[in-house]
Fold this sequence. Notes:
Radius of gyration: 39 Å
Strand order of the largest sheet: 9-8-7-6-2-3-1-10
Low-confidence stretches: 1-22, 316-322, 329-350
Amino acid sequence: MTDADSFLHLARPLGPVVIGNQPVTGPLNVVVQPQALFSILDHSLRRNADQDRVIGTLLGVRSEDGSEVEIRNSFAVPHTEILNEQVEVEMEYQKTMLSLHLKANPREILIGWYATSSELNQFSALIQNFYSSQGDGTYPHPAVHLTVSTVPGQDIEIRAYVSASVGVTTERIQDSASFIPIPHEIRYGDAEKSGLELISAAKDRDDRTVGTMTDIESLERAIQEVLGLIERVAEYVNSVLDEERPPSTALGQFLLDALALAPKVEPADIERDFNNHIQDVLVISYLANTIRTQIELSNRLATAALTAGPHEGSGAAAATGSEAAQQRPGRDQRGPRGRGQPREADRTLA
């Protein structure tokens, strides 16, 4: 071999290895939900003035094969760093909050931890080893470390890592770790996309406020966005046909697949189906309002009957009793008569 050849040096383990206790392979992809990211940013905004970064715990779900991790939630963990010499983390607080979150969301598990700084130091290794430990950690799965750069005036930079233990002795392994970057993405649904777009619309306003849109306004905005996308695609296709841009086979295949999913119907049929759907929606809305009005009217009538019924009944009974007393005054004045007492007429005859 020449001197330019490269070599791979393999070192045997320092101690005996127990089969079955080795951690599994790290995740190949990390998915971050917007609510977890907003919680991290809110924690960073509320930190003390003397803190360079804050940390917290990541919760989420893991795929069956462990290849993908989805971060859905997070909570802050108090900690203190003293002049790059000592770090103090409230472990009991972290365990208590973790148990409460797992009770509220049984389907979520411990994923790892986050820090609002891109710097990786020996304190990061200590915290990473704690979250990766057995018992209270993510073992046998490696803990995911998410760094979120929150420097004012700069774009938010997100990175995801897993770690591998390094060190010559056991003491060095506990405060050392090799961080390995892994791919990540921010994934959100249609409902979350609408909320994010509404929030982002306030950044161009001086008062940082924006009003909510009605359903019709949201539909109009969505149609305008679709029309804008169609115009961009049409402009790209025309530029490729005019040989102004180089063609892309992958993009052409994607457009072909997208157009193949569209149903082949006439515009008149689409307009007729749309009008029929609108009529059905209006009929259902009318029936729902009618049923709601009828139920409310029945409740009011029942409430009125329960409220006014006993008072009117007692008044009618009293009036009936007084009328009966006026019609038969003699009977009421005689008073009670015993069984063994003879009448006045009987006494006279005797």
